[in-house]
Amino acid sequence: MDSTIKNDKTKVSLNEKSINHIGKVKSKYILKRIFNHIFNKKLLEIIRYNKKMQNRLNISIKTYMKLAFYFSSIEIEIIPSKIKFGKFINITEFEKIFYHIYFNDNNIEIKNKYAIKEEDNVEKIKIIVNYQIKSFEKLFQFCDCIKSINFKKFSRININNMSYMFYGCTNLKSLNLSNFITYNVKYMSHMFANCSSLEKLDLSNFNTENVYNMSYMFSGCLSLKKLKISNFKTNKTNNMSFMFYKCSSLKEINLSNFNTENVTNMEYMFYHCSSLKELDVNNFNTNKLENIICMFYGCSSLKKLDLSKFKKNKKIKDQPYA
After folding, report:
1. Alpha helices in 37-191 (DSSP H)
2. DSSP 55-84
3. Which of 73, 192, 205, 300 is surrounded by the most beta carbons within 10 Å?
C-alpha cells in the first residue's frame, strides 16, 4: 500500500515496508512521535534520528524533520470575545519557543503577547504547537476573552496532563474536542471547572482509561445542558469528588460505562445538580469508597434514586449521601 504525504512544498511517497523499518533507535536527537494510522491504524513508538533509518526511508533529513513536525503538531483555532482586555493563553518561558501564534492569519511575535486588547481588532487566533509539549495543565486557565476553541488538528499522544486546562473560561461558549487524543492523560481534575457559559460538551471520543483524577472536572458548569461522557472508561480513576458540582442545568448524565471499583472519594459528586431528573448508579462499585459526604445534596428534581446496590465500606461509617 503506497501513500503520499504532503506538507507545504514537501511531497514524499512512503510505503508500508519502509515504515516498518521505523522503531526505537538510540540517538540523542528526538525528532518525532509519528502516527501509523495513515497506513494500518497503529501507533509508532518514539523514533530518534539515525542515518541508517533516514537512508531506508530514502528521504533527506530536512524532509524527515518536516514530516516529524507535520505528524506531531497541534493546531488550535480561537475566536475571542469582544472585550476591552483579555488573556487567551498561558505559556511559560520554556514553552513559548514551541508555540507559534497567528492573529488574523498574520504571524505575531509572542514574547510578550499572551493577551489581546479591543483595539487589536483580533477576530481569530491560530496557535500551532510542536511536538515537544507534554502537558496542557492550566493552558487556558482564566482566559476570559475566549468565546470559542476548535482543536482542528491533534496528532500527539504524549500529552499526559489536562488538569485545569479550561478552568475559569467564563465566556467560553463553544468547544470542539472531536480530534482530541487522550490515551496517555492521567490527570483531568478541574479540566472544565467554572466554564459557566458552556451549554454543551461532546467528549464521546475521549479515551479516559488511564485517568486517575477526575475531581472537579465539570464543577461550576452552571449552563451545561448536554454532556456526552457515555464512553468514559474509569477503571483506574480513584477520585470523583465534586465532579458534577453545581451542574445545575444538567437534566441527565449517562454513567452506564463508569467503572468505580478503584474510586475512594465521591464527596459532593452531584451536589446541587438541581435539574437532574433521573440518575442510574446501579453499576457503581463502592467497595473502596471512603467519602460520600453530600454526594447527592441539592438534587431537588430527582424523583427516585436506587442505592440498594451501594455496599457501605467500613471506612465510610455513617456519612450522609445527601
Report:
1. 51-57, 61-70
2. HHHT--HHHHHHHHHHTT-EEEEEEE---S
3. 192
Q: Which amino acid is at 318?
A: D
Asked whether residue 19 carries a pLDDT value surpassing 80, the answer given is: no
* Neighbouring C-alpha atoms within 13 Å toward the C-beta of 129: 24
Please report, for the chain, how many H helices and E strands are present, in that order. 3, 14
Q: What is the pLDDT of residue 6?
A: 42
DSSP label at residue 313: P
Q: How far apart are CA 265 and CA 295, in angstroms?
A: 10
Q: What is the pLDDT of residues 133-186, one digit of tens each?
A: 889 999 999 999 999 999 998 877 778 999 999 999 999 999 999 999 898 899
Long-range contacts formed by 278-283: CB under 8 A, 24+ apart: 278/252, 278/302, 278/303, 278/304, 279/253, 279/255, 279/305, 280/255, 280/256, 280/306, 281/255, 281/305, 281/306, 281/307, 281/310, 282/306, 282/309, 283/255, 283/256, 283/258
Tell me, what's the pLDDT at 70?
58
pLDDT score, position 32: 40
Q: What nine digits make up the cell of 252?
A: 441527565
CA 293 to chain centroid, in Å, comes to: 28
Beta pairing, strands 146-154 & 174-176: parallel
Nearby residues of 51 by Cβ (< 8 Å), 6 or more positions away: none
- Is the torsion defined by CA of 142, 144, 147, 151 positive or negative? negative
Per-residue model confidence as pLDDT tens digits over 34-69 = 433 333 333 333 334 455 655 666 666 666 566 655
